[in-house]
Amino acid sequence: MQGNNATSISDVILLGFQNLQNFKPLCFTILLLVYFATMSGNLLIITLVSMSKSLHSPMYYFLTQLSLADLLLSTDISPQTLTLVLNGVSTISFTSCISQFYFFAVSESLECLLLSVMSYDRFAAICNPLRYHSLMNSIICVKMVATSWLLSFLFILIDTTTIGLLHFCGPNVIDHFFCDFQPILELSCSDVSVVHLELIIFGFLGLVLPFAIILVSYVYILQVILKIPSITGRYKAFSTCSSHLTTVCLFYTTIFCIYVLPSGQSLSTSKLLSLFYTMGTPLINPIIYSLRNREIKEAFRKMMNGACPVGYICQSQGRRAPQLIH
């Protein structure tokens, strides 16, 4: 037996989905199309925001960061999942398994923080429109995004380092399609109480606290909207938040179902929810923000018509009023 900080298993076997023998081609094709659409949709949003000066506002800047988080998640999970569906099982190195968990957790933590930042942007636009430019100037926006990235990488690095110092004595089989937190810990024969304590702390800072910020922001937003005298005005104000609110509900509902209510779920159900969480939501997010957004549709139309040629970065001119998601 090696020391407590040694790793006695070098490879990890991912079992993936064991009941797809008769549906491998169909499942592989669907997941491949989802992966392609996810990459295309998020890259398109990043390109449109970069090229169109009409989209040079804080909300769209945060949206590009959300797309980057989705690209990170999809790139981390989807290729391995496609390999599993095609081959049945997959053997990866233990280091690759830990790395996959690290980038998965970073992308999820980053999305939590970005959604809270975006909720504050909506709060500033609706509740303090006259002070919007001072509250959400370019320097503040960059600092908020940089802080979100830094905290995500730092929190997960600490937790992942602690996991890497555990003693893993096998078995080296994970009945999942990617290296998630709990399946990795089940491979360890060390005391994992410290890891669970870190999870509670970082879960509060990276998940619960951002959700509290979102909740408080929308309480104030709702109070302001209810004071608007006309129904049309209320609808217009609320529609500026609808895309973000839909994304928040989808994100936190899925997290709750997977990680808070795992008891009573079958393994197949848990895998299916995780599949939707890791491959579905990165695809749905750009769809949510595109279908109900006139400015993105207009920017796409102009790009297709050659109004903003490829390779030319449109420059924003002057200070603009807060752009609201419609």
How is the secondary structure organized here?
Blueprint: E1 11-14, H1 24-51, H2 58-87, E2 90-93, H3 94-127, H4 132-135, H5 138-164, E3 173-174, H6 181-185, H7 193-226, H8 231-260, H9 267-291, H10 294-304
Parallel strand pairs: 1-3
Antiparallel strand pairs: 1-2
Helix pairs in contact: 1-2, 1-9, 1-10, 2-3, 2-9, 3-5, 3-7, 3-8, 5-7, 7-8, 8-9
Short summary:
By secondary structure, this protein is mostly helical. It is built from 10 helices and 3 strands, in the order βααβαααβααααα.
Please describe what this structure looks like:
With 326 residues, this protein is mainly alpha-helical. The chain is built from 10 helices and 3 strands, in the order βααβαααβααααα. The chain has helices at residues 24-51, 58-87, 94-127, 132-135, 138-164, 181-185, 193-226, 231-260, 267-291, 294-304; strands spanning 11-14, 90-93, 173-174. A 3-stranded mixed β-sheet has the order 2-1-3. α1 packs parallel to α9 (267-291) and α5 (138-164) runs antiparallel to α7. Residues 1-7 and 307-326 have low confidence and may be disordered.
Strand order of the largest sheet: 2-1-3
Please describe the biggest sheet, giving its number of strands, its sense, and whether it closes into a barrel: 3 strands, mixed
The poorly predicted ranges are: 1-7, 307-326
The dominant shape is globular
Number of strands: 3
How many alpha or pi helices?
10
- Helix content percent band: 55-70%
Structural class: mainly alpha
First-to-last CA distance: 61 Å
What oligomeric state do the depicted chains represent?
single chain
Mean pLDDT: 84
H-E string? EHHEHHHEHHHHH
- Note the beta-strand portion: under 5%
Rg = 22 Å
